[in-house]
Structures are given as structure tokens and as C-alpha cells.
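Honest question from a wet-lab person: if I give you the sequences of every part of a complex, can you actually get the arrangement of the whole thing, not just the pieces? Trying it with mine:
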Amino acid sequence: MLIVVDPHSGVPVYRQLIDQVKFHISSGLLKPGAELPSTRALSTELGLNPMTISKAYNFLEKDGVVERRPGRPLVVAESNQNGMHDMKLERLRESLALSVTMTRQLEIDRERALELFKEMLNDTDDNGGSQ
Amino acid sequence: MKIIEFVEIERAFKRGVNVLDGVSFDVEQGEVVGLLGCNGAGKTTLISIAMGMLQQQRGEVRLFGLDPIENPLEVKRRVGYVSEDQILPDFLRVREVLHLHRHLFPTWDDDLTADLVTRFDIDLKAKIKTLSKGQARQVALLCAVAHRPEVLLLDEPAGGLDPAVRREFLETAIQLLNESGSTILFSSHHMSDVERMARRVVMLHEGNVLLDNELDDLREQFSLALIPDDGQLDSDALRALPGCLAVRQRNGNLHAILRHGPEDGRALLTGKLGVSVVRCESIPLEEMFIELVGGQA
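Yes, you can. This is the full assembly:
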């Protein structure tokens, strides 16, 4: 599994793990039923305290993203469309957070900012919907 | 279960100047705690006291509920220890050093020893004095972990080592964590090592515990706020704000470390003091350390 953590970041390492697993699921790299590496294997591979890995895995399990079966590796849960939708929205929310901060700091009018977002959405639609 | 207990530890090396001035904290079984502090903050003194190599003048220290000075054998058998300036007898060969340790520790694990000798590429026939600094430290680490200690005390174990050897160190400690669930207390100036290994951080400053928190909480429940230092805000008013831990003046801004997450911190500053905040964000451990103990420099 392709996971890269930056321990020297303002984002807690367990959060980085959660975000990347979710990203791999929403991008289709990790499909439902796919097995996740064991806590021990991932902690050795990434050079991290195993407790950090289990903390991330516990959150993912609580969110219903992965399933734990006794004595077997964790697997990606059968996709429930609602969950997947939430996950994608969550990713958009994260990337918009910076724009929201910028809007406040540059003191740009709210309506103008919303207009800009709509304009940019429409522009990409005209170009065939993707970049 | 509490594995390491420090209770009101005091220790001076010069009359009237306490290097440790009432340090108290516990380490639970299986916890990995990073001990931080400037040079001279007392990290080595505290770890030496835990090893029973130095006696505190006041307070109590217990490992597994035992006083390390009254029960030196039992405590040392259950502990692994590596320090930056550790001295191995330099007239011995590596093989002889390992033999010596093997006889001292009933729980010595030959398979783990063989495994580490291969991994570290250690020449058993070499004399200690011919080893490089990195190789000597690897032998010390091997001696510290091969009896699968319940507690690992590491005093700046990676000091002066290159990144590749440091990573080996880290991975060996992680292996021990995975296989034996050891409790680890380690001091380090390498913040990224602390961030990888530790779940909790204890920061010593001016003889006391300045900070004792889960690393994740430091990211989520603490923040650094930057406020323009344009004369509108009195830095004392900022210091008096609930949850404000430190204030510094830097390049025309006031830097404040808050015991609040970024959102709450910003709201508090705007709400209570009515100031415009340039930035209020989570910060890495290294920045936190510098803001808290770096002074005005």
C-alpha cells in the first residue's frame, strides 16, 4: 500500500494515515475486500510506533471504512455508497479549507468568492468536465 | 500499570542550583515517551537516576515498583540502557562483550542477537576500539535489547549518528515494541525520531516538567498564533489569556503558543482581545519546542 507519512508536520501522523487510506479507497486504488497490511508490518515499513498504526486503524474501523475479522487481516469494507460520498465530500472540504482561510485573510467579499467558485466549476464543465 | 515513577525528584550538582527541581511523572506499561529539553535541562540526570547510576537528593524513583539503588540487580536485569557517551571496554572483541552480557542476563535471546549481528553487519572478531562511532553504538544497542528488556532507557541514543544508522536504531526499537511490548523512555534532539517513536512527550525546562502531553494532542489541541506587534496589543494581556503558554516577539509579530486548537485559538484571540490574527495553526514538535524554550533570541 502506498503510504507516505511526514512525521514533521502539523497534522498528527495517525490522521495522515487515515486520510491516505481513505484517499486510496475513494480513488479506487484500494477496492472493497482488499487486505490492509498488519499493524506490525506497516509500523516496521514506515518506521512508526505500532500504536500509531492501531489508532488509525481503530478510527477507520469505527467509521465503517474497514472491517475487522477475528484472526484475519483488516479488509476494506464493502462500499456503501453513502459512506463513499461522505468521504469524497470530506476530501473536498479539506482542500477548500485553505481557500476559505485565504478568502478571510485577503478580505474578499463572500458573494464574490462564491461566484468565483461557480465560475471555475462552469469553466471546467465546458472543457469536458475534467482537467 | 505504572512501570516508571518519578516523584518530586530533586538533584543539584552545585549547592543551591537544582538541575531537577521537583520532577514528577509516570510511564505506563508499553508507553513510549520522548524526553525533550535544551542541553542542560536535566534529561541525562533523570535517566541516570532511573538507572540507579545517580542518586536523587529528594524525591523517589521506582521501576517496576522498586528503588533502583536498593534493588540494582533486579532492576538492571529488566532494563536496557544506551547513552550517547556509553563506554564499552575497548580492549575486548565484540564477541567477548556479547558473551559478557549473555552471562549477566538470564533472558538473553541468541536468535535476536544473531539477527541483529547480521542486520547491523557487525564483525564479531573486531576489537571495540577499532569500531566507528556508529558501529560501537550498534553494539551497545544490541547489548541493551538482546535480553528483551521490559524497559528501554535511551539517552540521546542516536546522537552523532548518520541518518541510516539512526533509522536502524529506530527500527530495532520498533521491533522490540512489536515483539515484546517494551516500555521506552528516550531523550533525543532529533524531533523527527521523537515524532515517529513517541506517543507522549515530556518536556523538561528549568528543572521542571514544562509539558507532558500525547503527541497527537500537541497537534490537535495546541496552536501557534501570529499577531502583528503594532503596539495595539500588550504582550502581558496576551500572556494572561487562559491557555497561553508562551509569548515571544519575532520579526514584528507576537508569537503565542496556545493550549487550544487552531479554530478555538483564533476565536479566543479575536473574541477576548479583539486582535486580528495573521495565522493560527498546528505546528510540528520542533517549532513547538523552539517557541516554548527558545526565549526571545
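Two things worth pointing out. Chain B touches chain A at residues 30, 32, 167, 170-171, 174-175, 177-178, 191-192, 195-199, 215-216, 219-220, 278, 281-286 (CB under 8 Å). Chain B has two domains: 2-215, 221-293.
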